[in-house]
Design brief:
A five-stranded mixed beta sheet has the order 1-5-4-3-2. The chain is built from three helices and five strands, in the order E-H-H-E-E-E-E-H. The longest helix is centred in the middle third of the chain and has 17 residues. The N and C termini lie far apart (34 Å). The chain has a single domain, classed as YaeB-like fold, CATH 3.30.2310.20. The model has no long low-confidence stretch (mean pLDDT 85). A hairpin with a 5-residue loop joins strand 2 and strand 3. The chain has 96 residues and is an alpha+beta fold.
């Protein structure tokens, strides 16, 4: 059994995130494959990203060799991680 500090949070995709992901990767299977790793990590340790506001964090995500890097914006509470937005990364965001 997981201790409370290792609790697995539910992942919630906000509508804006879902729309942006579909625009970036229209193939639903490939889109899911791309974000599954981030979901797994964030559900277990949402503080792995970088805090950029009082409640908003971001996680830089490497893309395949043919696509751009992405930045996933999210927030979380004790039970859930809310995926807010996903955007192509600016070089300086990905290098941090």
């Amino acid at each position: 059994m997981l201790s409370p500090s290792h609790k697995i949070r539910e992942i919630v995709e906000e509508p804006q995130f879902s729309v942006e992901l579909q625009e970036l990767e229209p193939d639903a299977v490939r889109a899911d494959d791309f974000v599954d790793g981030a979901k797994w990590v964030l559900s277990r340790n949402p503080e792995v990203g970088k805090k950029i506001g009082q409640l908003v964090w971001f996680l830089a995500m490497a893309r395949s060799a043919t696509g751009p890097a992405m930045v996933l914006y999210y927030t979380f509470d004790d039970d859930r991680v809310f995926l807010l937005s996903i955007q192509p990364a600016a070089d300086e965001q990905f290098d941090q």
